[in-house]
Every structure is written in C-alpha cells, then in structure tokens.
C-alpha cells in the first residue's frame, strides 16, 4: 500500500528535546553539508528505531545515496533511476510517502528494495529554494514498521537538513551538490562522493576487462598534535596532508577524505599491484616532508595499503577491506619498528 502522509502528530517532549540537541550539533558542523546529512541519517535512525536511514539527492534522472546509516550504510553512492522509485515519486510530488510493504506496493523499485533488504519505508522531501532536491528516508526490514510519531520525527529531521541547505548554499543547486559531496576542511571529495565514483569506476573496469586500484591511507600520530598544540594545528596537518596527496596523485585519480584522519584514492587503469603500492609509497614520502605550523615543526606521517581489481577481488567492499588490511599491517610494522629502535637506544 502506498500512502501520502499528512503528519498532524504532536511531537513528544522527548522528541522535541532530541531535535533541539540535533540543532545544536548541526550548528557545530557549520557549512559542512555532507557532515550534516551523515549526522541526520544516524540521528533519525535512532529516533524512529529504523533499521537504516538514507539521504538521496536527485541528480538528473537518478537518485543518489549521499548519506546512509544502518542497513544502508554500505550502499553509499548507490544510484537508482528516479522513475519507478518511491524516492523519485516523493521528489516529483513533494509529499511525504509511506510504503507499508515493498513486496505488494506496485510503485516502488522492488528489486532495489530487496537489494537493500528493506520491507517498509517512509520518505520525506528535502526542499532547497522552493525545489525538492532529494529525500530523507527511513527503512525497516519488517512490514509496516513506522508509526505516526516516527513519521513526525522524520519530518522534523528533514527540516534540519533543509535549513542547513539554505544556509550553506543560497543560490545554485550546483553549488549545493558541491557542498554535499566535498569535505569542508580540505576541499577533497568526501566519503559519499568517493563511494559514488568507486562504484562507477568498478563498473567501467569490469565492462572493459580493465584494472583498478584503491589506496587506503591513515594519518599517524594526529592525536598527539591535537593534544599538544590544539585542534587548529591538527586541522592544518590534515589540510597539508591533503594538498600533498592530491599533488602527488595522477590527474585521473580521485583523492578523498573519508573520515577524520582517513583518506582514500581511486586509481583507474593502474597496471599492477606493484604500481599501486609504488604510487602509495610516493604519497607517503611526500606527506612525510617537513611541515611547520605557526613556527612549530610538526611531524606528518601516514600509513598506506593497496588493493587492485581483479587480483584482490571484484566487489567494492572486498577491495576496501583488502586495502584496509594492508594499511593496518603497515601500521603494525611501523609500530614494531619504533619499538625496536627505542629498545636498541635504551
């Protein structure tokens, strides 16, 4: 059953308190629209007891997962056709919509629902400058999982994203897209855009029987910098590392900041695992160069791991896991080497 929802539910005091707290957290994020969307998906999932939550933005004739949590967390960057989907219909009508059972609802993308593992959902429109530009969606693995209170919570949280959109970008929707897909500190692609481009790069490599490399990188010893010199110094270290990574990568590569001190690089057409590892080590050498912040010399260091399609796998999650494992092994070797040096000096 497909419903258009008119929410008249009065929010509970607990929900209102949660919304106020969310507003405070969003204010701290400033113009980081991608960060706001990630925060809201996680918070609305908690408020509604959903199995997952998604922000989908309408881009051309597609709906793109730009933030996701819970059940949908691994689907970041997923692209679905607007036509034939509940999210696309929500964008078209501007109404809050509910699907009680995806197996019997004739107007949802049933295969996409099965891929995600959802059975019921509610979607609410995200409006920017009087235009519906996307949706905030909660999903459940059971039939008719959401109540009127849940729908009201979803509606209120969507308004927080809408407010962030307004303050972050008051002019063009293209500017809105950049703010939603770029890391506010470094200007690099964020986690959402990284996953989007990685999905597309994997599909292209598989169609052409080509190769593709991934690098996962993690800054070492950032916490001591923050503790000793403050977060301004830590932010400066992250920005400088980002500049050096981007400068060292090839023009065809995508360098992204995917977490606090975590980065990743997509290497299309890399010829071998050895070449991917070689580029990774060149990035490491560049990041480790001398760096000063406000007259203080700071030590920049980074660990890297590589994975290559098809040698290390053909699925996105497999490749990311393999690169992660290699990166953590590099961290382990680095720590052991330090311990050995300290022991020898002692």
Automatic annotation (TrEMBL):
Coiled-coil intervals: none
Domain of life from the UniProt record: Bacteria
Domain GGDEF: 210-346
NCBIfam families, A to Z: GGDEF (TIGR00254)
Annotated protein name in UniProt: Diguanylate cyclase (GGDEF) domain-containing protein
Species of origin: Paraburkholderia phenazinium
Lineage: Bacteria, Pseudomonadati, Pseudomonadota, Betaproteobacteria, Burkholderiales
């Amino acid at each position: 059953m497909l419903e258009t929802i008119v929410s008249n539910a009065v929010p509970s005091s607990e929900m209102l308190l949660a919304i106020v707290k969310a507003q405070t957290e969003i204010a701290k994020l400033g113009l980081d629209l991608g960060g706001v969307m990630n925060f809201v998906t996680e918070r609305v999932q908690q408020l509604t007891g959903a199995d997952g939550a998604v922000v989908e933005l309408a881009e051309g004739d597609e709906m793109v997962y730009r933030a996701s949590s819970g059940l949908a967390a691994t689907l970041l960057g997923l692209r679905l056709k607007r036509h034939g989907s509940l999210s696309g219909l929500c964008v078209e009508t501007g109404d809050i919509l509910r699907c009680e059972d995806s197996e019997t609802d004739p107007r949802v993308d049933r295969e996409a629902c099965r891929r995600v593992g959802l059975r019921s959902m509610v979607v609410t429109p995200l409006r920017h400058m009087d235009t519906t530009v996307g949706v905030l969606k909660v999903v459940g693995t059971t039939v008719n999982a959401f109540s009127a209170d849940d729908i009201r919570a979803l509606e209120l949280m969507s308004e927080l994203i809408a407010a962030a959109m307004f303050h972050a970008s008051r002019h063009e929707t293209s500017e809105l897209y950049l703010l939603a897909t770029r890391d506010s500190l470094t200007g690099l692609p964020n986690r959402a855009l990284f996953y989007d481009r990685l999905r597309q790069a994997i599909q292209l490599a598989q169609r052409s029987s080509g190769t593709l490399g991934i690098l996962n990188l993690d800054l070492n010893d950032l916490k001591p910098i923050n503790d000793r010199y403050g977060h301004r110094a830590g932010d400066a270290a992250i920005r400088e590392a980002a500049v050096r990574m981007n400068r060292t990568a090839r023009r065809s590569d995508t360098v992204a900041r995917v977490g606090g001190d975590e980065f990743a690089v997509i290497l299309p057409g890399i010829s071998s695992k050895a070449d991917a590892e070689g580029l990774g080590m060149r990035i490491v050498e560049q990041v480790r160069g001398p760096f000063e912040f406000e007259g203080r010399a700071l030590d920049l260091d980074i660990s890297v791991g590589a994975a290559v399609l098809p040698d290390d796998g053909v699925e996105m999650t497999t490749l990311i896991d393999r690169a992660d494992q290699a990166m953590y092994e590099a961290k382990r070797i680095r720590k052991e080497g330090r311990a050995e040096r300290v022991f020898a000096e002692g």
